[in-house]
Automatic annotation (TrEMBL):
This is Cytochrome b5. PANTHER family: CALCUTTA CUP-RELATED (PTHR10281:SF76), MEMBRANE-ASSOCIATED PROGESTERONE RECEPTOR COMPONENT-RELATED (PTHR10281). It comes from the Eukaryota. It comes from Lentinula raphanica. Belongs to the cytochrome b5 family. MAPR subfamily. Residues 242-252 have a biased composition (Pro residues). Residues 1-32, 236-275 are annotated as: Disordered.
Length: 275
């Protein structure tokens, strides 16, 4: 810490003298001069060595180009022209695309590591983007949906619940004569909540109780998660007149709940299939 003591006393600091045993190498910039081979000089020495190597490679390339031109002048066959090895390589569109791909992969892996999600928990943003992508979903009219009720052999069987259309061809109960064939070709969302399968074959959910609405939601999840049923689109319903009367409720004898409705309600709470 000689500089500290010099600052305290005001004396001129002693000039730095390189130790005699310090390894030395030739100065690449000044002939007949030696410089210390220490860490501070490494970048300069390495860059100078790189420049010398580049200059040598360029001169050799120029010599090969000269020989090639002479062969052409003599009418001799020559191979394709060699690119200057010292010329910086341009990054084309392919290189840019590869860089973007690597960046996306790295970002996804980093998101999985830090947040547990490849999309950095931006699921809502991804869903918005998905809405712009083409899908195999179909928009049905009520009239078109009615044609997929199983009455035509070989034609798939569709049903709808609260607007979502599902292919239930693999369900035996939806086949003609099946116990739940009345759901085929129609959006009977109300019946899923009330159990009135014959009179509530409608998508009108007005006036349902909270328990009945929960029943509808349960069956919507049932179809959405069923391994044998696939969503194929949406059904476009005609607007419901708010002033129109509500569908008549089931009227069990003696004020008791219908036996069939009790059975379906129990299945809903038990989260079982309805056939």
């Amino acid at each position: 810490m000689s500089w500290f003591s010099s600052a305290a006393t005001g004396e001129e600091p002693q000039p730095y003298v390189e130790p005699e045993d310090t390894p030395k190498v030739k100065d690449p910039a000044i002939p007949n001069r030696m410089v210390a081979d220490k860490a501070a000089n490494k970048p300069f020495l390495a860059y100078k060595a790189y420049r010398d190597k580049q200059e040598k490679a360029h001169k050799e390339w120029l010599e090969r180009q000269k020989i090639r031109q002479e062969k052409i002048a003599r009418g001799e066959e020559v191979g394709p022209e060699e690119r200057d090895p010292t010329e910086p390589e341009e990054v084309g569109i392919r290189g840019v695309l590869k860089f973007i791909l690597y960046l996306i992969v790295f970002g996804a892996l980093a998101g999985k590591l830090l947040t547990g999600s490849y999309t950095w928990e931006y699921e809502s943003k991804i869903q918005v983007l998905k809405s712009y992508l083409p899908t195999d979903q179909t928009l049905f009219s009520e009239r078109t949906l009615a044609k997929f009720d199983g009455s035509v052999p070989g034609k798939p069987i569709y049903l709808a619940i609260d607007g979502d259309v599902y292919d239930v061809t693999n369900g035996k109960a939806y086949q003609p004569g099946g116990s739940y064939h009345h759901f085929a070709g129609v959006d009977a969302a109300r019946a899923y909540g009330t159990g009135c399968f014959k009179t509530h074959r409608t998508h009108d959910l007005r006036g349902l109780t909270e328990a009945e609405l929960r029943g509808v939601e349960h069956w919507k999840e049932f179809y959405a998660n069923h391994q044998d049923y696939k969503k194929v689109g949406r059904v476009s319903h005609r607007p419901i007149d708010p002033a129109s009367p509500l569908p008549e409720p089931c009227k069990p004898p003696n004020g008791k709940e219908p036996r069939r409705r009790r059975r379906v309600t129990g299945q809903i709470h038990g989260e079982r299939d309805h056939y």
